Amino acid sequence: MRTDYKIVIIGAGMAGLAMAARLKLSGETSFVVLEKADSIGGTWRDNTYPGAACDVQSHLYWFSFGEQPDWSRVYATQPEILHNIELFAEHHHLHEDIRFGTEVTTASWREEDRTWVVRTGTGSEITAEVLVTAWGQLNQPSYGEMEGRETFTGLSVHTARWPEDLDLTGKRVACVGSGASAVQLVPAIAGQTEHLTVFQRSPNYLLPRMDRALGDEERQDLLNDPAGYTSLRDSLYHERDRWADGLSLDSNPVRDEFQQISLNHLEQQVPDPELRERLRPTYEFGCKRVLITDDYYPALLRDNVDLVDTAVERIEPEGVRTADGRLHEVDVIAYATGFKSLLVAGGVEIAGRGGRSLRDAWQQGPEAYLGTTVSGFPNMFMLYGPNTNLGHHSILFMVESQIDYAVRAIEALAEHSAAAFDVRPEVMAEHNDRLQEQLTRTAFAGSCTSWYKTPMGKIVNNWPGSIEDYRQATKDFTVADYEILRTP
Ligand code: NAP
């Protein structure tokens, strides 16, 4: 073979592992997974904060191929998800294909022999015909650019870097942020802390979760009846995919119903009208991620918990100073302040045809064709790439469609005696024009700030429609959309 491997996959999170498993199942053995950490699991390895769980029902939160997990709850918690990822890797014998402790620093397209040259932090070089990026979108913690953070004399922790066995008993704790991670963290730690202050910059829409443990019999029945398991998955899938209509900017029955359920949830769980108003979002439903929780509002009602909605001005040695001049003295600051979106190349310098960097190609914001391929970067397939995030469903279905698309493309290389496929610029541009036009009608284009948008307001993370729309769009690998590069 002219390269070290046919395929290099960057990242051993769920997407990278699923790509590897799918390749193996299709009979492809010439691939390697490069993982910078020492273990698998990506986001589910990193997010170990108390209360960490999935906000999509367990039975939807898995790939459709291979064995389905024996979930213990309607909404699985982080340890169970990570455990199932480990079982998946064992089942497909993936550990033998992963190089741990291998951070990719650059990946460059070498035009002369149509090869990707991947360099790692240790200076080694790996060549491949195909590059698959599976580094996720959210794994570099953001601390909200908080002034004075380093001056704090207590303990600072981020939800995505939670210290093992951190004991908050008797501690005065600040939780900065009130997003997806915070609404899980706050109820989980409120009972432990002496006092917990939650710093909210903007409130979120919350929906009831209705989580419960699954009984032994129920679990056994599902395991004994694969058709029943599939039918449960299918019905949850279709029910949830209809929620995509709820993320429209304009009023429609689905959106109006969800917004009403959310406002009723607030009404029912927060009796104090003054607190309720502070928790009421003032932007369009779905503009930020809608959060699913039953115990966040009740946690805020506890005697030892306060909600502060005055802006954080800076961090000082003793605690958090808010814009009204008040110093909130604490022992621990928990930053639930989210992530720097990694769409801009995940820390890897990628250079395509003519040495053009991906960073340069994406100056106006990340763009791809079907969220997967980028013009000028032949044979590069991005998993969870631009505009493939969802506000209503399990991201794993999007990733699985991308994996299928990439596998079909790899198979098409041989069928067309091609060395590489490079998506035609006009095909990618037309796709993105249509996408951006559709996105103007979604709630993501509303008046809130969110990580879905660039500072210029372009929505680069989210898909505008249903998963079915995406599945249809990606079901065929259309060679005519691509320039075929031959081996020189
Ligand atoms: P996030 O949703 O971006 O929330 C960050 C929070 O920090 C927001 O409340 C934000 O306020 C606040 N914040 C940021 N900078 C601040 C500052 N300088 N001062 C005060 N507040 C500040 O981050 P996340 O909660 O970690 O979630 C990120 C994404 O991860 C989610 O959207 C979701 O996709 C994923 N996630 C999923 C799950 C799950 O259950 N599957 C769980 C956790 C996370 P503003 O809203 O005003 O910006």
Characterization of the model:
With 488 residues, this protein is an alpha/beta fold. It has two domains: 5-140 and 340-485, FAD/NAD(P)-binding domain, CATH 3.50.50; 143-205 and 250-283 and 285-337, FAD/NAD(P)-binding domain, CATH 3.50.50. It has helices at 14-25, 43-46, 78-91, 180-190, 216-224, 226-241, 253-269, 273-278, 296-300, 358-361, 395-415, 425-439, 467-474, and strands at residues 5-10, 31-34, 98-99, 104-110, 115-120, 125-133, 140-141, 155-158, 172-176, 195-199, 206-207, 291-292, 305-308, 312-316, 319-322, 327-329, 332-335, 339-340, 349-351, 380-382, 420-423, 482-485. β15 and β16 (327-329) form a beta hairpin. It starts with a strand and ends with a strand. The protein binds NADP nicotinamide-adenine-dinucleotide phosphate. NADP nicotinamide-adenine-dinucleotide phosphate binds next to α4.
- Arithmetic mean of pLDDT: 96
The structural class is alpha/beta
CATH architecture of the largest domain: 3-Layer(bba) Sandwich
The tally of beta strands, per DSSP, is: 22
Small-molecule binders here are: NADP nicotinamide-adenine-dinucleotide phosphate
Sheet of most strands: 8 strands, mixed
Low-confidence blocks of residues: none
Q: What characteristic shape results from the CA principal axes?
A: globular
Number of domains: 2
Count the helices. How many? 13
- How large, in whole angstroms, is the Cα Rg? 23 Å
Considering the protein shown, what is the CATH homologous superfamily of the largest domain? FAD/NAD(P)-binding domain
Protein name: NAD(P)/FAD-dependent oxidoreductase
Organism: Streptomyces triculaminicus
InterPro entries: FAD-bind_Monooxygenase_sf (IPR051209), FAD/NAD-bd_sf (IPR036188)
